[in-house]
Fold this sequence. Notes:
Elements lengths: L1 H5 L1 E6 L4 E6 L7 H8 L6 E5 L5 H9 L4 E6 L2 H13 L7 E5 L5 H5 L5 E6 L15 H7 L4 H11 E12 L3 H8 L3 E12 L6 E8 L5 E3 L3 E4 L7 H7 L9
Parallel strand pairs: 3-4, 3-6, 4-5, 6-7, 8-10, 8-11
Antiparallel strand pairs: 1-2, 7-9, 8-9
Helix pairs in contact: 2-3
Amino acid sequence: xxxxxxxxxxxxxxxxxxxxxxxxxxxxxxxxxxxxxxxxxxxxxxxxxxxxxxxxxxxxxxxxxxxxxxxxxxxxxxxxxxxxxxxxxxxxxxxxxxxxxxxxxxxxxxxxxxxxxxxxxxxxxxxxxxxxxxxxxxxxxxxxxxxxxxxxxxxxxxxxxxxxxxxxxxxxxxxxxxxxxxxxxxxxxxxxxxxxxxxxxxxxxxxxxxxxxxxxxxxxxxxxxxxxxxxxxxxxxxxxxxxxxxxx
Length: 248
């Protein structure tokens, strides 16, 4: 992994609002990370699990410069890359920082609980039983699910009462997600991402609140592409940092 990270590309995204260094090889950001970040409408103190190269951390720091967000990343090379990207985008230390931790670590699970009003995460969502595994170790870690319930356990511990969790997952696994969320989570909003009009959704953004009893709402969602493969106007506006996904 370290050799991959020595060979970086620099990309300007979000209509030039963010400059991001990424490894040429390994896991690179996709549209799903940006759309997920766009679904977060407010916070005072946020924590992100699995920060990767830092796109969500930077996006939310620019959107909410007076709030605080902490990124958690278990890969030390990526932690150092995030620090580079925070500096590149002139993000102040008081608004965003990243630390190395595994969310399953016992020390991490004991400290700073019930402290955050928002958790955001893009957990591995491909089932290793349903797809051909990548040969790239970093992609396997980032994309293929292991124990997804451990992510919800960590999120529940870190959130304040009635705090919000935002995450993205496979639409075909909605039954699994709801079974893991109940009964500790409520006011669940499901926002499908439609690849094209009249094409079934593959991914969904979900927002849930800790210790809230109200039920589930399925929202209209977002069509990502026109028939010619170009982004729809609604999607392009989000990717250009002109508009955001509204879940509340």
